[in-house]
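Review form for a predicted model. The reviewer records the input and the model, then writes brief findings.
Reviewer: anonymous (R2)
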Amino acid sequence: MTSSPGPLGFRALPQLFVTVWQEFSLKKLRGGLLLVVGYLLSPLSWWNDLIFNLPIAYGIGYLCHLLDANLLLPGMIAGYWLSNILGILLMQAGVLDVVKDPSGTRNWRKELLTGVFSSTVYTLLILALVQLKILGLPEIFATDTVFNLPSFLPGR
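Model under review:
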């Protein structure tokens, strides 16, 4: 006499486990990866600028410099700002993947606008704190020494 293996049966358990694991792990893994990459690009980590954001900003500035020699610094500023916004947006997308919305619907336009708005508010807040001398600038920007960005371009 054999005992009943339960309502699902022993053979159905591995397939059920695989299906649940795939749904859980792939979405959570993607969300976790987006969250980590977003954190590395975001302004929330104090050390990321030297390793990630400034090289990205320099690369964008250099590409802009190839179009016009006067676009190095504006390109770097835009690249730095965009890398920080990208970081916040990636973190937001990662969190939304990890913490699943019960309704299952996502409004990408609203999420994008929220991310851009929060990044812009953060940038303006930091700018105001620097202007009010609550936050200080690094020595390279605070001295009267001329900082010549084009001298960092290759071939000079």
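Findings: Residues 124 and 130 are 10 Å apart (CA to CA).
Further findings: The chain has a mean pLDDT of 75.
Recommendation: see findings above.
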